[in-house]
Amino acid sequence: MHTTVHRWFTAPLCITLYTVICISHVTGFTYGDCMVHDPKQFRGHVKFFCNKKNLKQVPPKLPLDVTDINIAHNNISVIKSGDFQNLIHLGTLNISRNLISCVEKGAFRDLISLTELCLSENRLTVITNEFFNGLTNLKLLLLENNSISTIENSSFSVFHHLECVKLSGNKLRDVESMQPVFRIQTLNVLHIAHNNISIFHSTDISNKSLRLQVLNLAHNPINIFRISADIFPHLEAVDLSFCFSNGGLKWEVLNTDFFKNVKRLEMAGVNVSEVKSNAILQAFNKSLAQLTLSAVHRAKSLINSTCLIPTLTEFTLRDNRIRNLTGTGLEKCFQVKVLDLYYNSLSNLENVFASLKNLTSLQLGYNNFSYIPNMIHNLSMLETLNFVFNQIEKLDCFTFGNLTNLKNLYLYGNKINMVKDCVFKDLINLKSLYLGTNHISSLGGAFKNGPAKLEHLELSSNSLSSLKTDDFSGLKSLSSLRLNDNKIKVIDNGTFEALSSLRVLNLLSNKITDESLTPDVFSGLSNLLQLHLQKNHILKKDSFRKAPFSHLKSLQWLSVLSQSPHKMKSFLPSNFLWNLTHLQSFWAQNLGVKSLHVDLFKDNTQITELALSGNDLTALSPDIFLPLRKLYKLYLEETHLKTLDFLVQANLHHLYYLQVSKNQLASINHSIIQSLPGLRLLDMRGNTFTCDCSMAWFIKWVEEDDLTEVLAANKYECNSPPNLIETKLLKLDVQSCNSQDTAFFFYISSFLLVLLTLFTSLIYHFLHRQIVYVYYLFLAFLYDYKRQGSSKSCGFQYDAFVSYNAHDELWVTSELLPKLEGEQGWRICLHHQDFQPGKPIVDNIVDGIYGSRKTICVISQHYLESEWCSREVQVASFRLFDEKKDVLILVFLEDIPTYRLSPYYRMRSLVKKCTYLSWPKARQDPRVFWEKLRVALGARRGSEEENSLSDVQNVL
Ligand SMILES: *[C@@H]1O[C@H](CO)[C@@H](O)[C@H](O)[C@H]1NC(C)=O
Ligand SMILES: *[C@@H]1O[C@H](CO)[C@@H](O)[C@H](O)[C@H]1NC(C)=O
Ligand SMILES: *[C@@H]1O[C@H](CO)[C@@H](O)[C@H](O)[C@H]1NC(C)=O
Ligand SMILES: *[C@@H]1O[C@H](CO)[C@@H](O)[C@H](O)[C@H]1NC(C)=O
């Protein structure tokens, strides 16, 4: 009995519990230190990041739908054949900066979608024939900085789409050994810089013409360069920088047409004789447009012949220690449009520049100019002028003459301390002006009336201490204004009034105080999208009289993080963000904020990104977040949080990334995760947990590979119980927790069982008869129910069913039966005659009773003691109950005193209520007895027995 009950009792319960446990909507997973969802990105590819994590092998469980893998900067030494199995969607694979010396056969065979493979900075020495098997769609192959000295003959033949191969920084000695690479039909770009190539012979490379467009040969000690056939007809760019270190270079390009399409040539650090340099230049004297002659000892002597290349338009002469250019022949470079003289020692522009009439871009950064020479005025075609990091101190009204075409002016990194109002007046086409890292303390009206087309103004890292009303009033087109890293303390009302086109205003790292945060200061900035107010002195006030940014109707991005003095308690006044109805990102880290006002975000329903890290938000109320219905990323790192329960009510249905690292979260409730259906990335690093069974769900959840990635979950540690301190949370034996659960469950169920058994026995003991009675009532009910419809309307088979004890059979057969059947003509059912053999006795009885209109119980001492009889009474009395009519006729064969009936209290109450006939009394005059019986049998619906229902209920 115990086991059966156990089975039917526990099975459904188990199923229920299992269902409760298993059906939850958000499940989690972790790749340990690795990451699949990039918090820096919103949506997109499935990118697997695991760079710089001390990996010794490729992580075993890569997501099958991964499109990008970055496992650079680790200690992986072998790529095993199964490492990238089945990753058929992988597009880019970055395994640079590892210790790979061996790639097993077929390691890349499944990567049919791979287009970029980066194996740079490893320890490869040989590229075997099978190395790249499978990579038929590769376009970019990076093998830089290995120790490759051998490339086997057919190793590169798998590629059908490879366009770019970078083999720089290896140990390849000759181009012959690179023939497999040159044979790639689709190759456009080849880098073989920093190898050991000393002979570059076209016949060693190919006898057919190649498609190559870009060839980087830099830093090879080439001493023989011989091109005897037109194998590079498509070559456009060649890098020969720092080649030919050996003085005895043999340069033989047999036909000047061989490089007829080369437009770009880099010859930095080519220190060969002037004659040889000229020979090299001659070989490219067909369509060369861009030439770099940097870090060349005798650059000046080469300028002359270079300027004879009629197609040259961009000439880079960096880092050549040039002090002056007189006599170099530069004046002949009138075809040059872009002249780059960075990193020289120029301090003046000589007459030679006068003839560079076509110059549109002049780059003079990192020279010794202390002023901008007047010669500049002649360069009226100039569009870009660059004097960065010189010694320029002042700008005069005539400095820029009439450079009306100038678009970009780079002046950062000088010593300019003043700008007069007339300085930029003629620069009517100026779009970008970079004046950062100077000593400017006042704008002196320089932008009061223009330049009207200026779009970008950079004034960072100067000494501005205040901004005046007219400072920017002429900059109608200004789109970005960078004023970061100044000493701005005061901003006048209306300073930005004219800047209706301004999109980005950067005031980071100044000394702005709350006094400058009034709506009027920002008036006019109706199109501002981004406002940087980080690292100032704001947010010291408890409240603002008016919402400070109420004019910034379009603002999407606002940062106020890290106000100093840093550690002071500060507040976010409740109206701080009011009217910012378009705000999407709000950055308010490291402010010492203790709590947030419920109304703070009331207007900011568009916020998707909210950063509150580094504050002191021990407790947060869910109400704060209710307006933030679109919140996508929430940063709450290091905020002294002890619980995340506030999230349950916060309604953050779109939250994708939750960063709650470095808090005091000892546990996390499942309901929190359930309340964040959009959660895909959870960062709880730097918390320590209570390692008991309350975290069992979490451990399971993390390990289930589905929706939410839990960053570095394998690193989470326990802080209690004491014996588990510093144990890893995920190492906790959830199984044991489970069995504890099950044990508890079995304990509870056995306990319940014992109780049940006890209770049952008690009931059985004391209420045995009632139970058996109820059981038969139930049977009768069932029977009746079955019969319903089938025989209800049909007549009865018998007029009476006689229920009697075997001891009384003689009376029944000799007295009762002859009278009733013979004389009175009733059809009588006796179980001895009429029961169907083989049918269960109870069924026979029930059939008998129900097949008869009445039931006659022949009651004697024996009858009362017999079980069967009482069952018959029960079924009959149920009919009495059910059909509300008197079907029971009690015939007492003996005089039974009521007290003797008391053990058979059912009978007693029946006797009390029902009509009953007594045989002993009738002996004197049996006619009356039979007549009464005849009447009783003949009675149909007994209206006089209305109360029988309640009688039976009493019986029960
Ligand atoms: C590979 O990853 C490293 C580390 O993230 C990165 O610096 C490098 O640029 C990547 N290389 C490519 C080709 O993406
Ligand atoms: C090109 O032809 C020459 C002479 O027929 C031969 O020596 C050389 O090996 C060939 N080069 C290649 C790359 O096939
Ligand atoms: C380049 O060719 C032009 C003629 O087209 C010639 O005048 C000039 O000297 C050549 N320059 C060099 C460096 O060979
Ligand atoms: C302005 O340019 C014109 C030629 O375009 C030139 O004649 C004039 O001298 C220039 N003005 C100054 C101040 O250099």
From TrEMBL:
Membrane topology: Single-pass type I membrane protein
Gene3D superfamilies registered for this protein in UniProt: Ribonuclease Inhibitor, Toll/interleukin-1 receptor homology (TIR) domain
Subcellular localization: Membrane
One term under GO cellular component: plasma membrane
One Gene Ontology term of the molecular function aspect: signaling receptor activity
Primary location class: membrane
Alphabetically ordered keywords of this record: Glycoprotein, Immunity, Inflammatory response, Innate immunity, Leucine-rich repeat, Membrane, Receptor, Repeat, Signal, Transmembrane, Transmembrane helix
Transmembrane regions: 744-767
GO annotation (BP), single: toll-like receptor signaling pathway
PROSITE patterns, alphabetized: LRR, TIR
Domain TIR: 796-937
Stored InterPro entries: Cys-rich_flank_reg_C, Leu-rich_rpt, Leu-rich_rpt_typical-subtyp, LRR_dom_sf, TIR_dom, Toll_tir_struct_dom_sf
Family: Belongs to the Toll-like receptor family.
PANTHER family xrefs: LOW QUALITY PROTEIN: TOLL-LIKE RECEPTOR 13-RELATED (PTHR24365:SF522), TOLL-LIKE RECEPTOR (PTHR24365)
Protein name, entry field: Toll-like receptor 13
Organism: Clupea harengus
